[in-house]
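Bug #77: duplicate submission created two jobs. Keeping one. Sequence:
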Amino acid sequence: MNHSPKHNLTYQLAHDLGTSIVVGKYSIGDSLPTEAELCIEYDVSRSATREAVKMLSAKGLIASRPKKGIRVLPESSWNMFDTDVLGWILSSNPSLTLLKSFTEVRAAIEPQAAALAAVNATFDELEEIEKALARMEAAEKGLDDSLDSDIAFHTSILKASGNPFIVQLTDFISTALRVSIRYTNKAKGVEGDVQKHADILNMIKSRNPEKAHAAVKEILDEALELINTNL
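Kept job's structure:
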């Protein structure tokens, strides 16, 4: 279903302002233009502008108060689990420190997700992980996208964990993986290690949670070491 023109204008304005905030065009504590000024600057209606301001307020980027205007909030208020916010940050040439923080979150979640998948994964969920691995193998031959297939592999394990809270993190992990995997692969000079991913799948299929946990941890420990070396 196509979004309405108003919805598209609202989201585009939220995207433009959100990106401007995370790249530092508007500093923390600065005031943004008023809603009336934004209407003129971006050539959008007052209602679309108001909705965009509400969106950014809900994401923790700004605070809008009557007679006090629109103020940029500190990063500690930003909802980093919001895929829009994360996407804006990651598209603005993120620091290695941020990539390290994200990889640390992965290290806290993904090994346990693999261990749970070894216990809980259904036949269909195992098949999805296998399909993602097959895509990674095809990507080595130039027949698929290496980044997309790598992301599909990791997110399919999250979905196979059987834990609804971990599954809810799929979009967040997927959004950030797009930058972090690209960085670590570039730093290593190679694409994703297919054999190590195959080892993860085999441990999950063998219903061995301890070894599945260890296999994922090995990949993430390697990524953290690579980032720390370049910090």
